[in-house]
Each structure stands twice: as C-alpha cells, then as structure tokens.
Design brief:
4 helices, 23% strand, 6 strands, 6-stranded antiparallel sheet, globular, alpha+beta
Length: 185
Amino acid sequence: MNLIQTNEIINNTWLERPSPEVAPDLVGCTLVRRMSNDQIIRSTIVETEAYAPGDPACHAYRSRTPRNAVMFCPPGMSYVYLIYGMYHCLNIVTDADGVPSVVLIRALQLESVPDWLWEYIPKQKSKPKISRLAAGPGKLCRLLDIDLSLNGSPLGVGRPMWLEHPTRQLQEDLQKDEKEQSGFH
C-alpha cells in the first residue's frame, strides 16, 4: 500500500485493477456523499467484498444483462441494485473497461451524525449507536440516500459520490494492524 499524505481523491486509474486487489485497499478509504440538500457526509469504508468474472456470485457471471450492464463500464462508476425488493447495495466498478468486476461496499463508519441526517434513519424505540447506522450494505444505502437513481453515476468531486484515500496516519495504523494480525512484529 502506497502512503498518501492527505485525503487525495481516488482516480479511475487506481480502480483499474481486479476487484480482489481493490477491495482490501478500499478499507480505510473515505466514501464522500453529496446529499440532495448539498450537505456532505464523509464515512470510512470498513468492510468490502469483491466480485470478479468467473465468480458464480457475480451478477455478470453468466452474461451481460440490462441490470448488470454498468459492471462492464470503465472503472469509477457506481453499480447500485435492489435486493429482496427493498434494500439497495452500492458497488464500485473496477478493472478494465468491459471486464465485469465490482467491489461491494458492505459497511461504513461515521465519525458523527449531523442532526439533519436523522431524517434518513428509520424511527426506533431508542436512538441507534452511530457505529451501527451504516453496518451493512442496505443500511448504508438507506442512510446515505443511495438508490437506483445513482446506478451508473461516475464517481468524482462535484458528483453525488467520490472516494478519497485514507490519511497517512490511518494507513500506518492499518498496516500496523495487518502486521499484528499476521504475526509479524
């Protein structure tokens, strides 16, 4: 992992790799969402899942269809789909143009929740923990108002969503955790 000095924008060239390579590298990166009210929400990606050609779980495993056509687009596009008729899932298109490869964003961590964002959170008996608000693909899409209207949207500053590399300190912390988990000290 190359160390980045600041929250540098992730470009499409960085995403132009197979999803199994990109997925772990996205952990620790920031997903930035410009909401319909022009407010910005920043959240850290904490869990991802790769779907590559040849994987039976990949939506494009059998063939290209109208539903999965975005997966064949150049890297840096959002692939949003609906599961169980009620939950949206956000994927980032990776790899070369024409290669159906995506990374599912499974969970995010928010540092704080602005008061206005609570309108996107379903009413519950007790206020949910911040750490659980985006703990799952459907939850994070509901919280960030990500739906089928964003399917096929390019990621980038000035767009509804973009990705940023983690700060240098976060990258160093992640590398330290990886070494400790693998037994290298």
